[in-house]
Amino acid sequence: MKRFVQLSQISRKTDYDYCVIGGGPAGLMAAYELSRHGETLLLEAGVASSERPYTDLRAETTDSVLLSDHGTHPANPWTLRGPGGGMERYAGILIRYRLQDFDRSSVFAHASADPRWPIEYEDLRPYYDEVEQRFGVARASGLDPTEPPSCAPFLPPHRTSARAALINEAFDELGVGHFPTPLGVNSRPFARRPACTHCGHCNETRCQTGAKASLLPLVLGSGSNRRLRLAHAVTAEALRVDSTGRASSVECLDTVEGRPATVRARHFVIAAGALNSCALLLRSTSRLHPRGLANGNDQVGRGIQFKLTGYAEVRAPARALHGESPTLFSTTATTDFYHQLPEGGCGGFVYDASAPGRPDTLRLHFVISEAPMSENFVAPGPTASTRPNVVIRHSTHKVDRLRLRSLRSIAVGTLSRIDRRVRVHEEFNATGMAHLAGGCRAGTDPRTSVVDPEGRLHQCDNVHVADSAYFPYAASANPTMTLIANALRISRQLAQQS
């Protein structure tokens, strides 16, 4: 069984073919794919095998600052720091971006950064299919009106919880379509993983049975692959370039021993999370790149995007949930308002979400993506090991606030069919920055983008970005499946071309 070790335990005498920076789902997928073609080293800032509560892990990595409409706040640029990243504690929602998500230019007139991807859904479709075949997604087919073309489901959907059944009744009364939430949680044994036993709601916890899809078992189980080495507790401080302008090494810090180190490689793949990937490039200054690697046109770090979200909730009717065993985080969803809101404008994703510790609560999560804005950007701290690690400047556009309120009204109107005493909470992304995207946006014009369609830096051809920093537009759907599929596409193309 392969495992993560300290950098001091790994030989750095020879150049690696590939160095992957970041051990979240994108980095793990890239490292696994690249190691089939050459000597590969993965560097991960977090420490492996932590069983501590999610809230504790989040609190200790709140090492950045957010300057926003709400004032100045401590911020967390990580979904979750550690091998596997946020996917180790995610709710299991695996859903593809919609066809229209790759070009939303017609509905985001207020965007100051182009939301168009330089690739289309069909470019990603075979990689989506491969990810689904490898991990399994429990879903229905034909019930989601926005569902893009795809392979047939490998797993049937999970049973609808009693909580979701009540919400479905409200949807039906309003004429709103609904479908089982697509989940990367086995509804029957698949891919050497057991079926889910419904032992809990999954979100923010490790799966106790192995039924939930994760990249870590794939990578850690590749013990026969001697070309893949995994190092944890190591921060990447800066990439260094040679006289030709190509990246030749990455300067690191072993945070356990407090020792600096240098790793040399022929190719580098950055997957440190949207904000940290930007910060790494901006810290990588040199005579050839005085404002940061690939930042000659002042585009690195610009166009970062948050998700705008909230919850609406009511008490379930007496005895309605009597005797129900623990269920998954979500088992019903609607995309009836995904493309268009009743008042106009691009809509969002709505799904039921369990309320931890409150089994009698019915809750709808409503999510919209914001328009990419050049004015929203990230700047680095002096080094990756200092506080603040990054400084984020972000303002929510008034049009996006109105879009969120419109989707909120839909969620409230749905739950008011069950109980008129609806409570609403809109989330402010300060210390809970999940689903971050942008900052190294992909495009064909180097004046307005950082990487090309294949994820290669326009201004440094042996460095690729494979995480959500690549995304010109982060859709309202959960990004994990797109993140993995795109990392697989980028790394496979890199391996074939190098």
Automatic annotation (TrEMBL):
Transmembrane segments: none annotated. Its cofactor is FAD. Residues 429-487 form the Glucose-methanol-choline oxidoreductase C-terminal domain. Keywords: FAD, Flavoprotein, Oxidoreductase. Signal peptide: none annotated. Pfam families: GMC_oxred_C, GMC_oxred_N. Residues 183-286 form the Glucose-methanol-choline oxidoreductase N-terminal domain. The keyword Cytoplasm does not apply. Belongs to the GMC oxidoreductase family. This is GMC family oxidoreductase. It comes from Nocardiopsis codii.
